[in-house]
Amino acid sequence: MKIRPILFCALFALPMSVFASSFAGTSAGSASGASSNSSGSSSGDDKVVLEAREDAAGFVASNGAIRGAWLEAALMHLREKDAAARDASDMELARKILAL
């Protein structure tokens, strides 16, 4: 019976760590990462999207049934940064993440 609260806390903490690592990557790494990155985004931005590749693969393979925390963070991040991504479906964005 005590497993449920532990599981809930673990599931709650995972998305928070995703956002924390994204923030740390974009604020601390933007000065050094932006100069070496040809796309103009910071290394933290790339990290969020690249970390979601495994979740994106599961999402595409399951035809959208499996949605991981890394994928959710990357979809939100992409839609915040790119106007074209706001109009794209989750499946389209997941496939673009896999193509990276």
Distance between the termini: 42 Å
Q: Main sheet, how many strands, which sense, barrel?
A: none
Number of helices: 7
Beta-strand segment tally: 0
The number of domains is 1
- Tell me the β content: under 5%
Structural class: mainly alpha
The radius of gyration computed from the alpha-carbon positions, rounded to a whole number of angstroms, is 15 Å
**Percentage of helical residues?**
over 70%
Q: Judging from the principal axes of the Cα atoms, what is the shape? A: globular
Instruction: Give the H and E element order.
Output: HHHHHHH
Mean pLDDT: 73
Low-confidence stretches: 16-41
Short description:
The chain has helices spanning 3-28, 30-36, 43-51, 53-61, 69-81, 83-87, 90-99. The protein has 100 residues and is mostly helical. The chain has one domain (3-24, 41-99).
